[in-house]
Design brief:
Distance between the termini: 36 Å
Shape: globular
Number of strands: 0
Helix content: over 70%
Largest sheet: none
Number of helices: 6
Radius of gyration: 17 Å
Order of helices and strands: HHHHHH
Strand content: under 5%
Number of domains: 1
Structural class: mainly alpha
Mean pLDDT: 94
Low-confidence stretches: none
């Protein structure tokens, strides 16, 4: 229970919400700029939303070697990177899924882990800067 409550605090941190909004803005802009048959606004929200909820936690599981959490971490990573994408496009446009799935998952996996790095820190930005300053002054 403590873990769920602690994580819910992290989801509401202003700096994390701002970075999510920036990322969503870039995804939405990309859906207009690039002529990719599998890039639209709904999938941008779907994948970004699931990534926001899981990427930081997944990276913690990996870095901290929490072996018992690995099956769930792998399942959630797959869901965010390919599962929700495949389900969405199998309903909306199966031809787009067939054409783009093999090139989507490597890009999505890279973005997933980059987001995990961005959202890895559990705390405020002030706490992060204070921690970095303390480490640099050792």
């Amino acid at each position: 229970m403590h873990s769920i409550l602690a994580q819910s605090v992290e989801y509401r941190r202003p700096w994390k919400l701002v970075t999510l909004a920036i990322g969503l803005g870039l995804l939405i802009a990309g859906s207009f700029i690039y002529n990719a048959p599998d890039w639209d606004i709904p999938i941008s929200f779907i994948m970004a939303g699931f990534t926001y909820l899981t990427a930081g936690w997944s990276l913690h599981v990996t870095v901290e070697r929490r072996w018992r959490d690995w099956p769930l971490m792998l399942l959630l990573t797959w869901w965010c990177v390919d599962g929700c994408y495949a389900l969405y496009w199998s309903i909306v446009d199966p031809d787009a899924l067939d054409a783009m799935r093999n090139v989507n998952w490597p890009a999505s996996l890279s973005l997933y882990w980059m987001c995990g790095l961005v959202w890895f820190w559990n705390g405020t930005l002030r706490e992060l800067f204070e921690r970095a300053k303390a480490i640099l002054h050792r």
